[in-house]
Amino acid sequence: MALTINQRHIVGTFMQATSQEIEYGKTWYSLAYDVANRISLVYQLNTECVAAVIAALSPNNKWERNCKDAENVVAAYMLGSKEDALKVKVCTYGKNLAKAVAILESYHCDYEAILSGPKVIEFYHSILGANDDVCIDGHAYSIWFGERLTMKEVPSIGVKLRRTIKADYIAATQYINDNQDEVFTPCQIQAITWVAHKRLYNV
Description:
By secondary structure, the chain is mainly α. The chain folds into two domains: 5-28 and 130-201, no CATH class; 32-127, no CATH class. Helix content is 70%, strand content 0%. The chain contains eleven helices and no strands. The chain is elongated. The two termini are 32 Å apart.
């Protein structure tokens, strides 16, 4: 199959990934699911609820702190109150903390409606193992675009552009699978290229 220039950028980044990065990226979202599942078992919540809390707290937040923030918010809510949870110090925006608490308040309701933003919904889907979605953040855009861009340089990703980028990640995944005799999912390719991108550009 012939690749577009943007699809080649994705494949090119994948080809620069080390074997360790491929293995790590391949399991990244399943490990994230394990984090959500562990927290859910401790506090007797469903895993989907905790995954949504993690996604809500993810913007502008490093992954390790994202996990810590999620557990702290869940603990404050389950062992205390809504007000206690809203006072937890987190490394994301106040509106995202409010979303996380609203998710805990809703319990078994439509978490996606509370998350609302496309990137956090995609992240939520990926944590839960959805094979037909791809999390398109600033790094995924940079990989697709073919240059190292700062988050300030990444444009607003509207519905049409987001759809195009996702389709290109899916096409790139198919190309990699056909040529590597693999069965990667698009979200795994997104994670693998993200890990490689971080090393290549020290981000």
